Amino acid sequence: MRRTLVLGALLLVLAGSAGADTLVDVYINGTKQDFAPPARVREGKAYAPLRAAAEAVGAEVKWIESEQLAIICQADVCAIIRKQQGIIVSGRLLIPVRLMAEALDAKVSWDGKRKAVMIVTESAAQQQ
Q1: Most buried pick, 5, 44, 92, 121, via CB within 10 A?
Q2: Cβ atoms 99, 92 nearer than 8 A
């Protein structure tokens, strides 16, 4: 009986950690962002808060409640992000960072050493 309880508890711990989010940093044009709630990786995708991430790359956000989507525009480029593409954390919508950034012509990479998403906007890339 005791062995069954220990084994059951171990399985619960392992199952819970397998799906756990990993908090990550996000750098935009070399500047570390301080998002609330923090950016995270879930099931291999990096997510960050919708409005904060979009505004950090210089985009404007318009939320359309009736459609449950956001239109994110920067200069003459717009991206549509639907609520179901994101995740809800602490009552806030976090969206896939790569989806949003690449739709706005930004370059996205992963720095495994720092556990960080690196975003370089088109305007910053042109200045280099």
Answers
A1: 121
A2: no
Residue whose tokens read 């950016």:
39
For residue 62, the enclosing domain spans 21-127
Q: How many residues does the chain have?
A: 128
Q: What is the DSSP letter of 38?
A: P
Residue 97 lies in a domain: yes
d(CA 105, CA 102): 5
**Is 1 within the bounds of a domain?**
no
Residue 77: count of CB within 10 angstroms of its CB: 13
Judge whether 81 lies within some domain: yes
Tens digits of residue pLDDT in 51-73:
999 999 999 999 999 999 999 99
- Count of beta carbons in the 10 Å neighbourhood of residue 65: 7
According to the model, what pLDDT value does residue 123 have?
73
Residue 46 within a domain = yes
